[in-house]
Amino acid sequence: QVQLVESGGGLVPPVGSLRLSCAASGIFFSIYDMGWYRQAPGKQRELVASITPGGTTNYANTVKGRFTISRDDAKNTVYLQTNSLKPEDTAVYYCNAKKYSATVVSGEYWGQGTQVTVSS
Fold first, then answer.
1. Judging by DSSP bridges, how do beta strands 104-110 and 91-101 pair with one another?
2. Do residues 94 and 48 lie in contact, with contact meaning Cβ atoms separated by under 8 Å?
């Protein structure tokens, strides 16, 4: 059974920081692209950051320079360090695991999400 379990969300004031974690089980973690998505009320889910098995990262323009994604394959865990948080970063943050066969997605899993609220 595949599980992606997020943690680390919460209420933080503007310019604060949070470190989100996503622990995976039931998958061969090291071959998966891992990503963080977020969904704010009334908006579509959007990609925040992703990291390939080789460590190549990709960020949404809105978070570049403020967020950092990393992975620890020994712990089957992906992290999202969020700094200089803004109220517009408020959303439910979801962990995503994606496996490719050539260029086709051959497996994809989602976590349940963790709420991040940025407010004074």
1. antiparallel
2. no
Extract the tokens encoding 111: 């976590």
5: which 2 tokens? Answer: 């379990």
Helix (H) or strand (E) holding 37: strand 33-39
What are phi and psi for residue 47, nearest 5 degrees?
-75, 130
For the stretch 51-84, pLDDT in tens is 999 999 999 999 999 999 999 999 999 999 999 9
Phi, psi of 42 (to 5 degrees): 75, 5
Of 15, 31, 23, the closest CA to residue 88 belongs to: 15
Residue whose tokens read 């490719």 = 100
**SS3 track for 53-118:** CCCCEEECCCCCCCEEEEEECCCCEEEEEECCCCHHHCEEEEEEEEEEECCEEEEEEECCCEEEEE
pLDDT digits (tens, 9 = 90+) for 15-58: 999 999 999 999 999 999 999 999 999 999 999 999 999 999 99
